Amino acid sequence: MRQPMRQLADVAACRSGDKGNILDLxxxxxxxxxxxxxxxxxxxxxxxxxxxxxxxxxxxxxxxxRLHALKFVVEAALDxxxxxxxxxxxLGKTLGAALLRLEIPWPPSSSPSSPSSPSxxxxxxxxxxxxxxxxx
Length: 136
Hints:
- The protein has helices at 8-11, 32-41, 44-50, 92-99, and strands at residues 5-7, 13-19, 22-28, 59-64, 69-74, 103-105.
- By secondary structure, it is of the alpha+beta class.
- The chain has a single domain, classed as Alpha-Beta Plaits (2-Layer Sandwich).
């Protein structure tokens, strides 16, 4: 039986930025279970291959396990940078959205209906007030 595939957009968030001809992508998982799947399947080679139509340089991956995040630095990715590029908006933010379209194998034990679903990540509400009141 073939393992199901999921788009990163279904299970993670991405922030992106650019400086000159370098692209910075941060892929964030909502919990440790999803992070483990991303860590296994979203490699520097997978990102380089997925972004190959736009990025010509090497890709370096940094792991940030306490944040459940992977950071990718992609060189020669922006056709010379914003000021030099003839591209119509294929800069950092657009390539961050492109990364979220990457499909990866998704283990059945991490299906959206299981307790390890991305929607069941840590509580993201406001921190409790020290004195029990509300801030004005």
